[in-house]
Protein 1
Amino acid sequence: MIDTHAHLSSRFSEEIKIEGLDYVVLAASCLQDSKDNLELSKINKKLLPAIGIHPQEINDDFANLEKLFDDRVVAIGECGLDYSELPDKTADSFAVMAARQVELFRKQIVMSQNVNRPLIVHARKAVDEAVEILKEYKNISGVFHCYAGGIKRIKKIIELDGESPSLKSFGGPRWYFGIDGNLTYEIGLEEVVKNIPKDRLILETDSPYLTPVPFRGEKNCPEYVKYVYQKVSEIWQMSLESTEKIIDDNAKRLFNLV
Ligand SMILES: [Zn+2]
């Protein structure tokens, strides 16, 4: 089992619970998280660092983020667009603030191309906008982390794969859907998962947030990703073992793991 999205830097957790997991991808929201993730990967080789700047950390320092990259980094992100806390789209200030997020997102997309790593995309109230931007770039791959685009946007994201000849060399789909512990208590999300092709689904905890049933209300940890796997196996009506194999193969393909 692989938790493809957890925040384990010191500001989130004192204790790292990863028993039974093959890997945990450490998502980064800011420069400091990115540095912490690189340090954590030295402690345990199952901890795979991503580096990136979240759209709400707009004043963070991209130039120094780029300098942090080394071979251990498995992904760039989380990066993207978050319009959930911006003023209403009709307000004058919306355009200014959104433009800054777009600029930071584009820089990280280009970085992902340059270093040949997938993107961990955070898109809140801005899935369509994120897709429109990503369409402009070739040879990128990634995951819509904590996918919140509903059934109707699944096709759009699949189409980001495009017709690029390099698709074959990638060995499978380039774009994935990351689903979290809220699958265990949000009925609507079950319907979404039913509509996501099996070879495009990966699972995550977003620890310390989004704790699944039966621990809802408590702090989340990577080990609890097993409850999300279990829920998917019920939805797919497959054994946990077969479910795990499919999902782990997807994660390994995206993050280029053995
Ligand atoms: Zn996150």
Protein 2
Amino acid sequence: MASKTGIPAFSPGKNTRSVPILTESSSGQEHPECTDEAGRVVRFLEEQAHKRDQRHVNLQLVRALKLQHGQRWLEVGSGSGALCRMAALCLLPDGRLVGVDIDCGIVAISRGLLNTVTRLNCLDVLPADGQELPFSTGSFDGAFAARLLLNSDHPDEVLQEMVRVVRPEGRVLAMDWDFETFVVDHSQKELTRRILLWRADNYGSNSWSGRQLFARFRSAGLERVRLKTVVTAGYSEEDALPDALRRAAAAALTAGALSKDEHDGWVGEIQRRLAAKTFFASIIYYIACGIVPAR
Ligand SMILES: C[S@@+](CC[C@H](N)C(=O)[O-])C[C@H]1O[C@@H](n2cnc3c(N)ncnc32)[C@H](O)[C@@H]1O
């Protein structure tokens, strides 16, 4: 697990099918500063962004931003830039969206994607740490962070910086899931609970980040804080959830929390249900929105 990105180890296989936006020629080869790790992370993020359930929740976030033509917005932790590319379209023709990411290699590749694929000149991506944003106070109409605070060691500091760079009455939004809202229909109830709870407590990022957003936004001094819940449902390999379940089981197996027989039996039923089109899983994402008070 790469803690800085929050991206799990990439396992080639079923989900390496071609991704429309990220092509071989834009996968980092032309950027000497890009590491293989950055390329792997960008590829993973692009694949995720193209999954049906992820497109649904990303669209809900972009709607919640309430972008207006001509505004200036910031995304912190922009990753491959998938959300930036969606959101920037709403700011045309004279608005501006800046994405920042702490990983220089990821920034280089996502800039390459912008230049070679989208050519949105209202959008730029820069290397920067969300805890120390290189922008003056009140310089944006709004700022958002998707799947960042749950991966951050210092979420309150990042949020405080987002509040600082947004003008009074501007909007700050964050979107995270809450892993303990992950449910899957499976015949082995106890084992399913064991795997999901083990995953929530031991693997990856802050599994309770979604439910913590309200208090976090209030503590950051934001006003009129509201949370929107988005349930994403997974029915097939077109959704991100089957792979998330397989990754959880694989991690539990590697950590010794699951025997090989338990792993194979549990994943086997998921595979059979996918083949029989009886697979169902869901998870809740939370989109928090607050208004920057007058200073
Ligand atoms: C899980 S990815 C999410 C990417 C994108 N927001 C999305 O939803 O597709 C998290 C990203 O945040 C970046 N990141 C982590 N900590 C950061 C920080 N302190 N400041 C800026 N970016 C950060 C990582 O490098 C990674 O690209």
